[in-house]
Amino acid sequence: MFASRMHLAEQYAEILATDGVVKGLIGPREVPRLWDRHLMNSAVVVPRVPHGASVADVGTGAGLPGLVWAIARPDLRVTLIEPLLRRTTFLDDTVARLGLSNVEVLRSRAEDVTASFDVVTARAVAALDKLGRWCMPLVSPGGVMLAMKGRSAAEEVEVATATLHRLGATSIVVTTYENGDVPTTVVEVTK
């Protein structure tokens, strides 16, 4: 997934395992599972993102999946959207330490962002109906929201379908990306 940029992925994993834990962005019990449950779980979706796309990661927290995507795909322009100062401070520092020129950190709530993006993503942020209200206004016409969800994705789609269509969804598909023992389930909503 990371090819010649594997060293950056390893450096990011080390930052998460140290500073991320100290600053409360990653729980200490997550450290042994960083690669399978967090980094690779995020990375397996990267092939779905169009070449050269602008990407917004809403509620990015520690940078998942946005920083993983930016490391794996230097062709992407990634905006990490996060309202909390301690998290944006961590993200700014991490982006600088990794030397990533394709990432912008934006301290904001999604509802206050006026830009639009080819791809808007979020991982473990909110229920799909609420997430749609935050993310779909940021999706450019013809773009896609890639909501990284768990096993309840199909049930969430049932509840959120009407809301998503009101927000401009033309298609809603649940896709599972294989990642060893921990598959990644994504609700793909095209606008």
In terms of topology, how is this protein built?
Layout: H1 6-22, H2 34-43, E1 54-58, H3 66-72, E2 77-82, H4 85-98, E3 103-107, E4 117-123, H5 128-135, E5 139-149, H6 153-166, E6 171-177, E7 184-190
Parallel strand pairs: 1-2, 1-4, 2-3, 4-5
Antiparallel strand pairs: 5-7, 6-7
Tell me what the CATH architecture is.
3-Layer(aba) Sandwich
Mean pLDDT: 94
Strand element count:
7
Please name the fourth-level CATH homologous superfamily.
Vaccinia Virus protein VP39
Radius of gyration: 15 Å
In terms of per-residue confidence, which ranges show pLDDT below 50 for 5 or more consecutive residues? Answer: none
Strand order of the largest sheet: 3-2-1-4-5-7-6
Strand content: 25-35%
Supply the CATH class. Alpha Beta
Shape: globular
Helicity range: 25-40%
- Give a quick account of the main beta sheet: strands, pairing sense, barrel closure: 7 strands, mixed
Head-to-tail CA distance between termini: 27 Å
Number of domains: 1
In the CATH hierarchy, the third-tier topology is known as: Rossmann fold
SS field, number of helical segments: 6
H/E series, N to C? HHEHEHEEHEHEE
Helix/strand/pairing category = alpha/beta
